[in-house]
Amino acid sequence: MASPIRPLARVLTASTYVLLGVDALLTPGFRVAQAGPTLAAIRRAVPLPEDEVVVRGNAAVQVVGGAMLALGVLPRLSALALVGSMVPTTLAGHAYWAAEDPVVRKQQRIQFHKNLAMIGGLLFAVLDRP
């Protein structure tokens, strides 16, 4: 008999990505500005579409991947897609090392490490076997 904890854990984990992804799709504004410097650096090596398209694409991955994970549809693959989404989100959105204000630096460092914990949880989902 399968544990009822596994589907609950998937829903609880996935809900964050769905909510954040929907928010980014509807109001990408500040995320586009935040991602700009990182995307500009990546463009030196790889061509990318406009910043807003990249941000909305990343948001779509979060919505679809989160929904799939919550529903248990290809949960390992959807968790892996979310990891792929969270790495650039974390680097672009919480570059605490670039913040000059100590208060902002501390807040961004906390968010950076929170995202690392989220990535760790997703990696557990990638390795999970029913």
Notes on the protein architecture:
The structure is a single chain. This protein is mainly α and 130 residues long. The chain has one domain. Helices cover 79% and strands 0% of the residues. The protein contains five helices and no strands. It has helices spanning 5-26, 29-43, 51-71, 75-93, 102-127. It starts with a helix and ends with a helix.
Q: Tags for this entry?
A:
130 residues; mainly alpha; 5 helices; 79% helix
Provide a compact summary of the structure:
This protein is an all-alpha fold and 130 residues long. The protein has helices at 5-26, 29-43, 51-71, 75-93, 102-127.
Q: What is this structure's SSE topology?
A:
Layout: H1 5-26, H2 29-43, H3 51-71, H4 75-93, H5 102-127
Helix pairs in contact: 1-3, 2-3, 2-4, 3-4, 4-5
